[in-house]
Amino acid sequence: MPTRRHFLIGFAAAPIALPGLAQASDAPAQLSLTPTCSDDDDLTQRQTEGPYFSLESPEKQDFANDAPDGERMTLAGYVLTQNCRPVSKALIELWHADEKGRYDNSGYKLRGHQFTDAEGKWWFETIVPGLYPGRTRHYHLKVQRPGGSVLTTQLYFPNEPLNERDRIFNETLLLDVSPTDDGKFGRYDFIVA
Question: Which pTM does this prediction carry?
């Protein structure tokens, strides 16, 4: 079974497969977008930021050291415009619970931000968040392209028993998750205005 690093290297090396962008005929098969970026009305759904957001998070990609006992997870994807063009220098801010369902409300453990690269790619090395009362497993994110409005949303795990009972859960915000030898790899592409 491949590792998270294997998935990330493949993700980082592969050109984005989007409608309207030229591709070589011998290009490797591409991962599908989530949701499909094929028309002008599929913006990523907004959701509440919840009670645990903190201003001025540090710029970082590696959250794994913040929770050494958690199951490793690599999150990755693209930020795209409504007409499916990659957005460089978009802000991606992530925060979530630790493996026991606790948020760090006094510091910046499992909190941080980064900016997309020239191809609109982003990724974080983190952990699978634990459950806390009343919620299914999820990540909180804010996404903003340069000069654009802030998208606040959450991402969810497929096949979680609590998804259907969580009043905030939205299936359009499901990660595409693959198991690896050393954790999980999750993919989601944001479509922003």
Answer: 0.84
